[in-house]
Amino acid sequence: MAKTKGEAAQQAVAFRLSADLLKRLDAKVARMEAATPGLSVTRTDAVRVLLLKSLDAEEAGLPVVVVERRAPAKRRTEP
Question: Would you tell me which of 9, 29, 49, 59 could form a disulfide with 2, CB atoms 3.0–4.6 Å apart?
Fold first, then answer.
């Protein structure tokens, strides 16, 4: 269900994040709170800021580099 906030309607979006990405998001929340003492920042706030920055850069034609982080491959042990 869309919520109206001012003149812009907002719609809830749900998605799953890996544990690694969630740790990175929480670190971003902590950095945002440290930069703005007294302001409480939620994960939703951080996702919104990061998404807007990324979309703005991409729409402006700036190169957006996506780095996929993967866990190191497990080594096989010979029998």
Answer: 9
Where are the alpha helices (H) located in 1-79, listed in sequence order? 19-35, 43-59
Q: Is residue 13 very low, low, confident or very high in pLDDT (cuts 50, 70, 90)?
A: very high
Residues 16-75: tens digit of each pLDDT: 999 999 999 999 999 999 999 999 999 999 999 999 999 999 999 998 777 776 666 666
Q: Residue 32, Cα to own-chain centre: how many angstroms?
A: 12
Structural tokens at position 29: 């929340």
Handedness of CA 53, 27, 48, 33 (dihedral sign): negative
Query: For residue 5, what are the CA distances in angstroms to 8, 9, 10, 50?
Result: 6, 6, 7, 20
